[in-house]
Amino acid sequence: PGIPNAPGTFDLHVSIAPSCAIQPRNLHVAGSPVLMLLGGLDDYTGTKPALKYAERLRQAGLSLETVVFPEARHGWELCGKPLWLPQAERYADCLFYMEDDGSIMDSATGARFPYEQFRHQMRKFARHGAYAGGGTGALRRKGGETILDFMRRKGFLPHPPCGDTAQEHQY
Length: 171
Description:
There is one protein chain. This protein has helices at 48-59, 115-121, 137-153, and strands at 13-16, 22-24, 34-39, 64-69, 83-90, 96-98, 104-106, 112-113, 127-132. The chain is an alpha/beta fold. It is flat, with a radius of gyration of 18 Å.
């Protein structure tokens, strides 16, 4: 574990607040486990599209775990006051499927676009304004611990030694 099996592949994936607005219609999954960390207050990439995509990936046979931090916004790993980004283009309420031929289908209307046309028209689907950041030290620690736990459970890190001191838990 920990060494890629082939060039260009990874043994494990961690995705933090992914944009899942465009999803392949026909999923082809590899065997590497995935951890998806999501913010319950993420109004930029959105939690719902990511959870729907995660379920589709699981149904296709991917080993995938999701963790939603209810109090987190997009970019929760950045500590400090949440920033309002009025010009941010967000697609959190959109779901598009990429077909095998590369065209894009809007799941809400069924309209299909060649990829190049969609790329130029995508902004018409966007809403503007989103929050980013606003994380805390406690949330960052919780996120880090979640990732380390996932890596341990998948055999990429040793389990921490038993003991009572914080020094014993350093890696």
